[in-house]
Specification:
single chain; mainly alpha; Rna Polymerase Sigma Factor, Chain: A; Arc Repressor Mutant, subunit A; 2 domains; two-stranded antiparallel sheet
Length: about 200
């Protein structure tokens, strides 16, 4: 669907309305491969939040997540010519950010729990404190998982990818994803046993 917008056209001609296109990622990827920076900018804006969320959940640091996200998009721009569109652009970006995060984790382990900006502090302060402590324990447990398990749990449970998409992003078999998730869930249940 194409919608006219108010304002000047890119050339500054006031007589022609500027047109903003709600275009499929495949069309934008083709245009970006042809050197269209505007098309790549639309892809970046469309996918920056989910890419950042993966990085934040995997790394546990806002600064590291911002750096990793930015580096992932730079890598995507540089590698766009090699993108064969066997998968969606989103899946390809998840693969890039996951690999980037695994590299960061390999170079320096994060010991701080993931900050939670969304914790509801309304209501009883004791309930809020207990909820916060439970969430902190869970986030610490996720951060302590082995890298492969953490990547699988973040992509499947926190980002909502299917098992198949998670396998594609991690470049492993479906059975490997299910095994990693099973082990991760067992570990998380064990570490959260005191909160039941």
């Amino acid at each position: 669907m194409i919608r006219p917008c108010t304002g000047l056209s890119p050339s500054g001609d006031e007589r022609r309305p500027r047109v903003v296109a709600e275009v499929d990622d495949r069309v934008l990827v083709r245009a970006a491969k042809g050197g269209d920076l505007d098309a790549f900018e639309v892809l970046l804006r469309r996918h920056q939040t989910p890419v950042y969320r993966v990085a934040l959940r995997m790394l546990g640091s806002e600064a590291d997540a911002q750096d990793a996200s930015q580096e992932a998009f730079v890598q995507a721009w540089k590698s766009l010519g090699g993108f064969r569109a066997d998968s969606s652009f989103a899946t390809w970006m998840y693969r890039i950010i996951t690999n980037r995060c695994l590299n960061v984790i390999a170079t320096h382990r994060q010991d701080q729990p993931l900050p939670d900006r969304l914790a509801a502090l309304a209501g009883d302060p004791a309930d809020a404190a207990e909820s916060r402590a439970r969430l902190d324990t869970l986030l610490e447990a996720i951060q302590a998982l082995p890298d492969e398990q953490r990547a699988a749990i973040v992509l499947r449970e926190l980002q909502g990818l299917t098992y198949e998409e998670t396998a594609e992003v991690l470049a492993v078999s479906l059975a490997a994803v299910k095994g990693r998730l099973h082990r991760a869930r067992l570990t998380l249940v064990e570490r959260m046993a005191g909160w039941q």
